[in-house]
Predict the structure.
Amino acid sequence: MTISAGAAATGVGMRSGAPHVLIVGNGRSGTNWVLEILNAHRETFCRNEIQELTSSPYLEFVSELEKSNGSLNDGLADWWTRAMAHSLTHCGVRDTRFLCRKTFLYRWSFGLGAANWTARPKLRRLVAHVYPPARKEEWLFPAWIGSRDLQRKSKGVLKINDMPAWVFDWIAGNSSAKFIHVVRHPAAQLRSGIDRFFSVLSKSEAAIEEAVYEERLTLLAERYPDVNRRLETISPKTLLEKVYLFWLFNNELLHVAGHALPKGRYFQVIYEELALGYEEVSQRIFDFSGLEVDKELLDRLGMRKQMSVWGKVDTSKERLSSRWHKTVPDELKALVSESLKDSPLNDLWATR
């Protein structure tokens, strides 16, 4: 495979030589929230869920990595370089709107709302009539809404949900990417997933989801003996059991691998702490990402907080992380309690 000069340029998506940031975790864990926080900074270029784009070079990289079983070779490095160079210079149908006038956006395009046409489906369909690239899942950052040169020099932020641990391991060992790992009490996360997603699935949709999570667990078990041993002991049978165990096992692996990385490569955001200490945790997120904080940014974040439910939270960390006991279905409570006993994640909530 031939890598273009643009794809090979190590400066793509890097601010002042600093590596880009990958937000990892699972659905209903707070990854959207962390992406929104970083998107409020003028010097970031944020992408959302590139793993859901069928044409994404990131999926091609994951496919090649799976086929190679993680073996080191120049081909994989090329696939990864191409995936990042593409993702950090393109926009896509899953991206959210710009929350402020970015340093690379023209004043008029943000002021008139033109810069955010990509995040408005109806307007995007209208623009597609005169701008054919918008008919695809992704397109090169439009030069008519901002400077491509400045966009490429901004801090690149990619949110990638459900990144398998073995993909995380390869990226951590073969790139300079920084990771923000968002974790939520797995039972509370499951409860949220049931309310917002799994409870409304049709039988055919649920069957598809179950097959997806069964395959994810199989791939983890093939690569991590301890996961295989625990799966053989538990033998999950339902969709929700498989979802819960993938979220738990995968986050455990990311947690352990992330804390083994050199300082400055991995930052863990605990959902319950973010919910109750929004300003403090946001500051730490910006510090980790190498982004300066000013009054304008703090005011913007304050307004966003008041627009969300978390601007009205009045409880304790202990109560917030233990609500799952009242909300998780009875048939899953035993699994949750038993699986968390020896989990390296359990300490995160033991005193919360």
Residues 1-17 have pLDDT under 50 and may be disordered. Residues 203-223 form the longest helix (21 residues).
